[in-house]
Amino acid sequence: MSEPSPRPTKRMRKGTRSCLECRKRKVRCTFDHHHGQAPCDACIDRQTTCQRQEHVPAAEASDPSDSISHRVGRLEAAVESLSDTVAWMQTTRPSGPCESADSGKYSHVANPDTRGDQESRAILNGEAVITPGAFGNDHNRNANETGDDAPPVGTEPAYLHSLFNNHVLSTAERAGQEHPLPPNTESRESIWAEKGSADLSAQVPCLADVRVVVASAADWWTIHNAVLSPLSVDSKQALIDAHPHHLTPAPSPTKVAMWLVYFAITLLQLPQDFDSTRLGSIKDPHGLVQRIFTHVDDFLSADSPLQARDGIECAIVLAKLASYLGRPRKAWLLTRRAVTFAQLLNLDRARRQFRNVQASGSIDSLAGQHLEASATVWESLSGLDRFLSLLLHLPAAAPSTLSKREQTDRRGSQNVLQHMMSEQSHIANRICYRDQLDSESDAEDETTRIIEDLSKLEQTQTDTWWKLDRSDIHDISTATPVLLQMAHYYIKIRANLPYLFRAKDNAKFRTNAWACMQACRDVLRRYFAVRTRLAEGVFLSRACEIQVFLACVILLLHRDRSSEYLPPTDSWESDATLLNNTKIAIGKAAAGTSDSFTEMLISALDQIEHCLDAVDGSRVVQLRVPLLGTISISRSATNFPPLENPTVPFWAIPPIMSSETLGIDEGIWDWPTDLNTLDDELSFWAVDTSLSGNPSNF
């Protein structure tokens, strides 16, 4: 029997017009490389480009590594290699440190797009290569490079991040197509850090100009150190000593940014008649303040600066600068972000750790200084956060600490004012907690306890301390107690405000209404005293204007209702004089920032008064007030119906009043034409008097 003839081999076409992708997928190709047609449909769906087969090397075109079976094999090899490595480490080194990469057991190299030339590609991206034992012999590696056979399991380095790389994409990349490699984050961050450091260093003025500014500016550190914990730069001399160009070694970019913000706040304390021609490297002080704020804000937008204590301190002073510039919401956002990173750094536990180590007696001076500095930064940050949360009626950053606090020893505090500020911060935090309660009875009980604690706090000081005398205010040091009193009365407003508009219908809330109105008057009296006595500098912060504006609006809304449920001694004539004095004091605000802020406040108060004095009832004032929300005020000449109950639970803040009385506009409020250029932070005090029609009675 003759041997059977060999089976004829399948004849293959030597040429084809299909692109490489369509050939691999065995689909019809519409690519015409002769006429320069667009990529075929298959390549468009896969977001690739067509590659002519004759441009692809034969070895690469027939490389079996792109098959599913080969990829699964490589994945199995990676898992087995990882298991062997872990088992070997557990048996040979159960508790010792990891070996270095030079030991040959395992190494960390980059992710090459092919399996060849592993050592030369080991510095690209830093992906892990895990190999038990040696890297494998040259025979296996060469065999894999030629595509003849798959490597034995466990002998080839398993590049975990490249197991599912598309062979067509890597081929197109080598052919010069636009398929960028994964970004090198490390080098990009280093370049960005160098650029950011150069931008910050370019804003640093010369030491001679710094001395001139410090000598002429008001000492805003006095107030900060009195009510908050002092930071690293706590005086004028400390600002001069920390000049970045005169420190060896050169400070980090974070320290440079922090110093710039300290200097920007100091620039805002210059008097109105300051001669800027005395400065050589500073052409426009106010322009420099804006540039510093922009550059440092961009610098802190990355996460890396906030991963250290210096970055947290830089965020604190930048938030203070934002509040000085009339941007309280920006300050709150900066503070909240800083609180998050500070908690990740365990700064909130630093004070407790410091006390525990002190009690044990096993602490060295360096570790003690580190814990003390961390605790100081956290206390200053938390105090600022609580104040801004109370001011803007936004949640506190650490709600878990609302019901608890470490007992503060008054004698152990830096001074009496700092102890009082600490107690006020705790009460302010409890007010934020009360506003989140769903039960009306629980809110009333918590309010009663808050008012009792405020009364106890008042009793810690003598009657002489609470007595206001304008003649005693002659510098920032003597003004600090008055500002602390102002903050205390604002907290009292905040505690009683939810019950103010229910006092007429419920007699048990009349005490709260009277306390709220009286606290408004106390805030205005102290603001007028400090602002008129110390008009230079913006050390008062724009937050004071927010408090004052709220107090003015409350008094204006009750100008015809004082006799209904308030004592007759609180007459409108005295309130009118107080409001007029307050507008004069606001007009004396320093010109360190844009005058649009103070002009907006005065314009809003004037428009409200004009609307309430109108006899034709044709004017409507629409504005947004802190804690009160967006309201529309109109006045009729016939009758004056009292305020109705809020349309939401009365303990909720802000208390939304009914549209029949105050004409609440629940829609989105539009800016007036002449106010479009103002900062969006001023929308709290925006006024629109262009409304017309027949408004409802007020």
TrEMBL record:
GO terms for molecular function: DNA-binding transcription factor activity, RNA polymerase II-specific; zinc ion binding. Residues 18-52 form the Zn(2)-C6 fungal-type domain. Keywords: Nucleus. This is Zn(2)-C6 fungal-type domain-containing protein.
